[in-house]
Amino acid sequence: MTSRVADPLHTLYDALAAQQAAQPTPVRHLPADERRAYMREAKRRSRERQREAAEAGSPQATDDAIRAALADAALMILATDAPGAEQVMSALRSAFPGRGGVAGTVRARCRSGTLRPTLLRP
Predict the structure, then answer these.
(1) Which residues contact 28 (CB under 8 A, 6 or more apart)?
(2) What's the pLDDT tens digit per position in 39-88?
(3) What's the CA gap between 45 and 98, in Å, rounded?
(4) CA 1: distance to chain centroid?
(5) DSSP codes, the chain
(6) Where is this region: Disordered (predicted)?
(7) How many Å apart are CA 102 and CA 106, to the nearest integer?
(8) How far apart are CA 105 and CA 101, in angstroms?
(9) Measured between alpha carbons, how far is 50 from 42 in angstroms, rounded to an integer?
């Protein structure tokens, strides 16, 4: 009979068990209230990083920032009637099918300057 201390398999098991016990509990296994608190804090840190990056002049490439940049590009295309303006108008017509005047109104507001880019500066 081998002793538990001398057995390499048990030694390996004990080492792996100790390593697993030292790891923090995954977020998905936390109780609901602790998970909400963790996610709230993580979102606060994320917003802080985004705010600092924006103040430094280099915003993070979040989904919202990418959408804002693309929307700003579309506004500038419509305002200057640049190549691609018809595709932007077509996309507007598709996005608002029951409202025929939206695309024309958006184009007019872009040209008059009442609908301005928020992220990009022309």
Answers:
(1) 35
(2) 999 999 999 999 999 899 888 999 988 999 999 999 999 999 999 999 99
(3) 41
(4) 59
(5) ---TTT-HHHHHHHHHHHHHHHSPPPGGGS-HHHHHHHHHHHHHHHHHHHHHHHHTT-----HHHHHHHHHHHHHHHHHHT-TTHHHHHHHHHHHSTT-TTHHHHHHHHHHHTSS--SS---
(6) 39-63
(7) 6
(8) 6
(9) 12
Rounded mean pLDDT of 14-36? 86
Residue 105, token pair as written in the block: 């109104």
Q: Which tokens in the block code for residue 80?
A: 């200057």
Sign of the CA dihedral running 15, 21, 23, 26: positive
Q: Quickly tell me which residue has 């709230």 as its tokens.
A: 40
Burial class of residue 40 (count of CB atoms within 10 Å of its CB; 0-12, 13-18, 19+): exposed
Kindly report, residue by residue over 108-118, the tens digit of the pLDDT.
Answer: 999 999 999 98
The H or E element containing residue 33 is: helix 32-55
CB 77 within 8 A of CB 85: yes
Tell me which residue has tokens 């507007």. Answer: 92
